[in-house]
Amino acid sequence: MKQKALTSSAHIVDNELANYALNIMSNMTANPFYAEPKPTLSAIQALITLYSAALLKTLDGNKADTANKNACRVHLVDALSLLANYVNLTSANDLVQIQTSGFNISQVHTPVGILDAPILQMSFGNNPGEVNYNINSDPQASDYTILFSTVPAPVNDAEWRSKLVSSTKGIITGLNHKTDYVFKACANSSEANKRNVYNYSKPVEQYVT
Questions:
Q1: What is the tens place of the pLDDT at every residue in 51-63?
Q2: Cα(155)–Cα(171) distance, integer angstroms
Q3: To 5 degrees, how large is the angle CA 130–CA 136–CA 71?
Q4: C-alpha distances in angstroms, 128 versus 49, 154, 175, 198?
Q5: CB-based contact 112:84 (threshold 8 Å)
Q6: Each residue of 118-157: pLDDT tens digit?
Q7: Does domain 120-208 have CATH number 2.30.180.10?
């Protein structure tokens, strides 16, 4: 399996994310291998500025400030994911070119089996019909699946609604207002997908405003 720029930066802690993104900006500015970055570097810089300001405000802020920081983080992480996809596509998996981008690079791994159940946390969203999720990161996970249902939930997992996510922190939208929901998540791998066997977290109930 060829190495590539990591498309997920969700595992990077809050205080290191802006510096990681700035290092990518520095490496890709005037980089002859990446003439037309997508998203543009100016767009990435704007998201870094917003995130940094939001993170600083949480030092003496309230729950609303934390929620805003989380939302800004999601936007920055998603933009970096798109930029990493651009790097991988443009470089045609040339490792020398990828290394000049500043992105963290994937390692050559042995096949990943079925992963342990993650820990899932839920919290109120900024708007009606929204909730925030936080999954503890598993470096071996290809992505994560969140199952959710109104209470009481069906016994059969196939009857729950599902959302496939690459980020361990984010927002679920489009939920019923003023309703109790239950959520659970699993870390995906190629072996789990092949066998259709997953270890889900403990269900978490969350009221949706």
A1: 999 999 999 889 9
A2: 25
A3: 35
A4: 27, 24, 8, 31
A5: no
A6: 999 999 999 999 999 999 999 999 999 999 999 999 999 9
A7: no
